[in-house]
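INFO  loader      accepted 1 record
INFO  loader      residues=251
INFO  predictor   begin
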Amino acid sequence: MNDDQLLRYSRHILLDDIGIEGQRRWLAAHVLVIGAGGLGSPVALYLATAGIGTLTLVDGDTVELTNLQRQIAHSLARVGHPKVDSAAEAIAALNPEVRVVALHERADAERLGVLVAAADVVIDCSDNFATRHAVNAACVKHARPLVSGAAIGFDGQIAVYDTRDATLPCYACVFAPEAGFEEAHCASMGVFAPLVGIVGSMQAAEALKLLAGVGSPLAGRLQMLDARSMAWSEISVPRNPACTVCGTRPA
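INFO  predictor   done
INFO  writer      dumping tokens
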């Protein structure tokens, strides 16, 4: 690290659990972020300010006026622009050293396989079960830790899925693809703006912990937040041997 980097990242370097070595790991890391909206905004900004070396952002949407209530990486001047380009501009204003790969696309399973394999950690900030399951399958196949978050209305959740440990579940162990969960969308149900900031910030924190080897990740644990009462609940989630993705006989 040069002198400017030592100064920029000094408040992290001062933490004994991180130090110079942890900061070097972040500078060398590659994080894949799926979604550049409500959750993806704080994720991308906090990872950028922490000095993650490469951020790959994947999102096929453009910025809309209704996004600005909660998607803090975007601005009024960038309405109509691809969200990944808008987020890249916001990142560059904070930390131009970060390499941003902005992919304005909806990645299919084959594409996700390539993107996940190239990353050290994957963060799912998408808003639908089909994408979440496709991302999870790629993470299981390529043995990459997945930080998953969701937020709708006043309800949020976060977990880490890391099947490099044979005892830990994948996303499909908890939310089985065949279960047919009903989709909920912000456009019809709304979302409390600070909620995505809370969950997204926690996703960024879990990714940074994983990369630096700090603390205990939220692996095997699903945390849920009711922002009306600001009450957290947590359940333990073991691996499902019959899981169609990571089980003993995957589909």
